[in-house]
Amino acid sequence: MDDLTVYTAARIHTMDAGRPTGEAVAVANGRIVSVGTIESMRPWLRRYPYTVDDRYRDKILLPGFIDPHTHLRLSGTYMGLNYVGPIDSASPTGLRRGLPSRDAVLNQLRSLASEQADPREPVLAWGYDPASQDGHLDRDMLDSISDTVPLWVVAYAPHIIYCNSPMLELIGVDDQSVGHGIGRYPDGRLNGWFVETEATARAMRPVADRIYAEGFGRAAVDRMGAVAKAAGVTTTADLIWGIGGGFEQEWDDHAAAIEDGTFPLRIFMIPFEPALVRRHGDDMLEYLASKRAAGDDRLNTHGIKYVNDGSYPSMTLVMNEPGYLDEDMSHTGEVPWEDMVERMLPFWKAGIQIHSHANGDRTVDMTLDTLAELQRRHPRFDHRFTIEHYCLSNPAQARRLAALGGLASVNIYFVHFRAQLHADHGFGPDRSEATARLGSLERAGATFALHSDFNLVVTPLSPLLAAWCAVNRIGADGETVLAPGERISVDRALRAITVDAAHVLNRDDRLGSIEVGKYADFTVLDDDPYAVDPARLHLIDVADTVLNGEPQGS
Ligand SMILES: [Zn+2]
């Protein structure tokens, strides 16, 4: 064993419920050797050389935060396009201002189109948010901006792409075209919408070489790694591995960034099932096994990802009765549920953890039905089938999820940033208010984590802000408590960004708490989240992170 380094702190919260606090942690070879006090770890200190590092003596140490659902490489890529979103957004060149309304977005697109030197070259924009920017864009609206320069706008949650007529031509579709998710006006004309995976992939094709320019992936990884680290994150997972450049290129970009020391995180690459099947077909399980063997605990593959409905902010999720306020569900895409059990079964049987995206309560039902059928065909324990997002749900679904042995990885930010908006846009008051029912999950005994999905939905990346949302459930008005019985304790919320998030990634044997033998990953805070007023949880500053026992520097 290497010499020990002993980090002292004002307080250590271990997230090991049996030994919850300490004031010193000894590490060697990137692992935790002992946690407690200098006195309690004497049996180690008497036997091995050690140094005491007291740089964190006034700070609070927690296990490194885990955001178990992001898309760092992809989101770093979109950041290179023209931004038309509603909230201020971090970018390589500083903060980009949000645009308050659809008119502001259309004006922005008009000036971009007029500045286009080559009128055949499309204007590419990202970040549109139909709920907070006054409704969807469409073809006629965009044609009124320009009917010569192709306009291509991907929503903030990239479940919808909006195009004008010249762009439709470039994509190669016309009124006779068929395919899931190609939107139409009531009279049958194309309306310029491409909704969900199949259609958005089609709309992406003619512009892919512009969005994915040479070297974009590595730059995106570096950029977003720094954003996550600043929020205290030491581990994340990319839940759309395989669609943004290909499996090998995406893996290599992360590997190179880790090798060069520019990516201060652990990352687990979760393959997007349609891409994996398309690319690796019959040998998909062998491919994953080979990557698992090639990977390590900094970079590895984990699980398999399915997307089974649309997004919360773009109102493309699938709801149970009585449905959307405006009875307009034509843009929710279509999921071939009749095939889902067959699609999941090879992975389920191979012991590969399934992560299945479900935002709407109807989709949660379908997902639970699918899990029940998988259990009937091939019973498993500790399978950790995870519903991703779990935005609209009811208490019965929480109990059923727990009974089937499932987990939830929840986007809690929407409670604050979106729920009040969607009371009158799309979802209605009842389900909006009860967005992200963590209290119900806790009462049912289901394990859950909190994630950001950064930045494919209109929310920031900040685990402490996620915890604040979960504990307080304060709406966007800054005062209303939404569905108070769905609030959870500070301890539970902090577990959901550390050890329970590690459980969701099937790494709680080595990550997520400060315990002997685990990796020495810490998040260093200026204030104690157990001691501050819970209403100020999100205002605690992240001072540093420690990865593998190494301070990463603030
Ligand atoms: Zn996602």
Word description of this protein:
The protein is α/β, with parallel strands linked by helices and 554 residues long. Among the domains are: 1-64 and 513-554, Urease, subunit C, domain 1 (Roll); 74-211, Diaminopimelate Epimerase, Chain A, domain 1 (Roll). The protein is 32% helix and 21% strand. It contains 21 helices and 23 strands. Strands 1, 2, 3, 4, 5, 21, 22 and 23 form an 8-stranded mixed beta sheet that branches. A 6-stranded mixed beta sheet has the order 7-8-9-10-12-11. It has a 5-stranded parallel beta sheet with strand order 16-17-18-19-20. Strand 8, helix 4 and strand 9 form a beta-alpha-beta unit. Helix 8 packs across helix 9, helix 12 packs across helix 13 and helix 19 (463-472) runs antiparallel to helix 20 (490-496). The chain starts with a strand and ends with a strand. The model has no long low-confidence stretch (mean pLDDT 93). Zinc ion (ZN) binds at residues 69, 71, 239, 453, 456. The site of zinc ion (ZN) has 5 residues, from loops.
Number of beta strands: 23
Radius of gyration equals 23 Å
CATH topology of the domain at 74-211: Diaminopimelate Epimerase, Chain A, domain 1
Which CATH first-tier class of the domain at 74-211 would you pick?
Alpha Beta
Bound molecules: zinc ion
User: What overall geometry do the principal axes of the alpha carbons give?
Assistant: globular
What are the SSEs and their pairings?
Elements lengths: L3 E10 L7 E8 L2 E6 L5 H4 L4 E4 L6 E4 L1 E6 L1 H7 L3 E2 L18 H14 L7 E6 L10 H7 L5 E5 L4 E4 L1 H7 L10 E3 L5 E6 H9 L3 H4 L4 H15 L2 E9 L5 H13 L6 E6 L1 H8 L3 H11 L4 E3 L2 E4 L32 H10 L4 E5 L2 H17 L8 E4 L5 H9 L3 E4 L2 H5 L1 H5 L5 H5 L4 H7 L3 E3 L12 H10 L17 H7 L2 H6 L17 E4 L16 E6 L2 E2 L3
Parallel strand pairs: 1-4, 1-5, 6-13, 7-8, 8-9, 13-14, 14-15, 16-17, 17-18, 18-19, 19-20
Antiparallel strand pairs: 1-2, 2-3, 5-21, 9-10, 10-12, 11-12, 21-22, 22-23
Helix pairs in contact: 2-8, 8-9, 12-13, 14-18, 19-20
Bound molecules: zinc ion.
The site of zinc ion has 5 residues, from loops.
